[in-house]
Design a protein that fits this description.
The chain is built from no helices and twelve strands. It is globular. Strands 9-8-11-12 form a four-stranded antiparallel sheet, with no helix packed on it. The two termini are about 25 Å apart. The chain is mainly β.
Length: about 150
């Protein structure tokens, strides 16, 4: 998004009914460090100025897909830049903890999961591959991520 003038803008997610009702769509505002679930609140207002980073927003989709996925389809673990995301499908929020390991198996971070559908946390470390483990009462799932 590139602002033509310093102003307040609104993003309206239209035609959400064209998506399967089991798909959640999130808009992440990197400038405000804010995540909004567009499927629950399809309007997002923000202020922007010319010269702001045009890569301010990230769209996240979760739910059924035509791609065969292995492992636990209720928990998705992925990264972008130096952020790690843990997403729960279908609003099945789970209490537990997140543990991040380096490639030598050393624990880097251990923190509780927040009781929300999309957990995000930044990690300050050397660029490379890391293992993210989500531990809950019912399951443990691990995923390799790349941190820039």
């Amino acid at each position: 998004f590139e602002a033509g003038a310093s102003d307040t803008y609104t993003i309206n997610a239209l035609e959400l009914e064209s998506f399967d009702q089991n798909i959640q769509i999130y808009l992440e505002d990197l400038k405000e460090n804010n995540i909004t679930e567009l499927t629950l609140n399809p309007s997002y207002s923000f202020t922007a100025n010319p010269g702001d980073d045009p890569n301010r927003f990230i769209l996240h989709f979760t739910g059924p897909s035509s791609i065969k996925e292995f492992g636990n389809n209720n928990i998705k673990i992925y990264s972008n830049e130096n952020n790690i995301y843990i997403m729960f499908n279908n609003h099945d929020y789970i209490n537990g903890e997140i543990v991040v390991y380096n490639i030598f198996g050393q624990e880097i971070i251990k923190k509780p999961l927040e009781n929300i559908s999309l957990n995000k946390f930044s990690i300050v470390c050397s660029p490379g591959y890391y293992i993210v483990k989500v531990i809950t009462q019912n399951t443990t799932i691990s995923e390799e991520v790349f941190i820039k």
